[in-house]
Specification:
Layout: H1 7-23, H2 27-32, E1 37-49, E2 56-69, E3 72-85, E4 90-103, E5 120-135, E6 143-162, E7 165-176, E8 188-198
Length: 199
């Protein structure tokens, strides 16, 4: 199915994508200086629908987060989500691939009073959502595959634990492109807790 494009649905993804591209500009110089660090973050979480029956479901995500500058991080992630609607008669599985830009405003704060805020970050990004819908009742198509574009804004907090390990708490609001006039609005809140492993 092809989504219906509006000025709003085009402008916001374009701005977010532009921000992600701008984030890569300092990467060449920073990488040459050897200041780049990477983290692999497997996480589990909960997703709550904003519309419809507002069901809450579990999901999982694996992210590669790169710190280019103390205040600037990029995040590439792949996830899995399994939703059920209408009393379980409709089952929707989603494999989102996302790109995010995170800014840590307190990363360079020298004051010890601000040390508790060093792990805070906020930002947004875009995503590509491959979805498969399965109907348990008699329908013209029992299995339907769709591909959607999505955007998100969010914030998080990372806490060092020991050595290269840390905990990462992330929350984001996700807008998903609608594939047709009759489709349920699938915008949602997503919260995850992950184990960050630096390498």
């Amino acid at each position: 199915m092809k989504g219906t494009l509006t000025r709003r649905s085009v402008a916001r993804p374009a701005l977010l994508t532009g921000a992600l591209l701008l984030a890569a500009l300092p990467a060449v110089g920073v990488r040459a200086a050897g200041a780049v660090t990477n983290e692999l973050i497997p996480s589990v979480g909960l997703t709550r629908a904003v519309h419809g029956d507002r069901a809450t479901t579990g999901d999982a995500r694996l992210s590669l987060r790169t710190t280019w500058l103390p205040m600037l991080k990029t995040d590439l992630g792949v996830g899995y989500r399994d939703d059920q609607f209408d009393g379980g008669t409709v089952r929707m599985r989603s494999w989102p691939i996302t790109a995010s830009l995170w800014v840590s405003p307190f990363a360079n704060m020298p004051s010890t009073r601000m040390s508790r805020f060093l792990g805070l970050y906020a930002g947004g990004g875009v995503g590509f959502y491959n979805e498969t819908t399965r109907y348990s009742f008699n329908a013209p198509l029992t299995n339907l595959g769709t591909e959607k574009f999505g955007e998100h804004v969010g914030a998080g907090y990372e806490v060092p634990v020991t050595g290269p390990l840390g905990l990462d708490l992330n929350a984001r609001y996700i807008w998903l492109q609608k594939s047709g006039l009759g489709e349920v609005n699938r915008d949602n809140w997503n919260t995850t807790l992950g184990l960050a492993v630096k390498f």
